[in-house]
Amino acid sequence: MSTTRVEHLIIGGGVAGVSLAAHLAERERAAHERADVLLLEAEPILAHHTSGRSAQQLIPSYGPDAVRELTRLTLEELDRTQAELAHPVVWPSGFLMAGTEEQVAAGASEAMRRISLDELAQLAPELRIERFEAAGLDTTAVRSNAPRLIHWHAERARSAGAQLRTGARVTGIEPRPAGDGFEVSVQTETGTERIHARVVVNAAGAWADHVASLAGAAPLELTPLRRTAAVVTLAEPLAPEHPLLDRADEAYYYRPEGEHLLISPSEAVPSPAEDAQPILAEVEAVIELIRQDTTLQIGPVQRAWTGLRTESPDGVPVVGPDPEVPGLFWLAGQSGYGFQTCSALARVATDLLVDGAVGDWCPAWAAQALDPRRFPLAR
Length: 379
Ligand SMILES: Cc1cc2nc3c(=O)[nH]c(=O)nc-3n(C[C@H](O)[C@H](O)[C@H](O)COP(=O)(O)OP(=O)(O)OC[C@H]3O[C@@H](n4cnc5c(N)ncnc54)[C@H](O)[C@@H]3O)c2cc1C
What we know:
Elements: E1 3-11, H1 15-32, E2 37-40, E3 57-58, H2 65-81, E4 90-92, E5 95-99, H3 101-107, E6 113-115, H4 117-123, E7 134-138, E8 142-144, H5 146-159, E9 163-165, E10 169-175, E11 182-188, E12 191-202, H6 208-214, E13 223-234, E14 244-247, E15 253-257, E16 260-264, E17 269-270, H7 280-293, E18 298-311, E19 318-321, E20 328-332, H8 342-354, H9 364-368
Parallel strand pairs: 1-2, 1-12, 2-9, 5-14, 12-20
Antiparallel strand pairs: 3-8, 4-8, 5-7, 6-7, 10-11, 11-12, 13-16, 13-17, 13-18, 14-15, 15-16, 19-20
The structure holds flavin-adenine dinucleotide.
């Protein structure tokens, strides 16, 4: 069996792995005129798991401090770089939060402006306004076309010289003697291959703790959490510019999806790492809640899906070298923020992998918040 040799092996072809492949390959090609980056995805297509199942929003007022800062930086970069594209990958789409005074105050941040109930009623005329006390609006939020964003990053990676392979599941990661990288076993349709990788990047989403264990690393106690979304019909469509409406107690969110409505029960239920499937009774229950709060005439469910938002113990993604295993690098724990932080996380990871430190484009406190060494090791 022949052994391929590669400098950077990325495991996982979701938004995290593909964004990193693009950034890293472009950086390597600029420095050495060639990129030595290989991405392996177990499934037959990229973004089959969580990255193919998101709500495709990027919301600067959403998430812990570091996530909000990384979202701002991601939006800056996407805005700048998407100018080269015929069709944008992100475009403005407001984020509205409504609930009790206390809930809205707890969810508010610098990107979110408090608005009156009159303004709320104008922005979301379908609401039974007497059921709400307070609201906030983030006009800096954007919507994305996630498949287009992934495709664009994959094309950028390939044209910079990276290889992206699907149907290639990593089944073993053996550290080689004298710190000379890893011997990686890969299962494909045609059999098992071996790859000698100097650095392995773990961008395996819900499987990240498992992948780390293949390399002998301790888990970071990442928890995959179920989150369902569905598209339902409406007797009368909402205005296309209607913001995403999030009930501040996280009971649900909804937003227009063409002439239909995208809804989510906003659940966060721990799950094994698996191909998660929706529970239709939960979708029906959230439709009932939305009916109680609005005058929307909701019809049948067109489609429903569930993905796993994989969360670290403090809810902030994990980007950096493994605390114990040299050459193993984490890019995981993106929770509900994988799209909104994709470019900034890929850039942080690229800086760390190439330079060993993050450039001053990213505030030091935000980069430090991602460090895997912040957790006690669970052995
Ligand atoms: C309903 C829902 C709504 C969401 N809405 C938003 C939103 O509006 N905005 C936002 O920013 N985020 C949102 N998210 C979260 C976002 O989708 C995730 O943060 C993001 O997709 C995580 O990307 P990832 O690349 O880390 O994981 P994944 O997309 O799961 O990719 C990991 C990949 O690793 C592969 N893999 C695992 N093990 C191996 C192995 N051994 N060998 C090879 N490959 C392997 C898997 O097959 C998988 O494709 C939402 C999530 C859900 C479920």
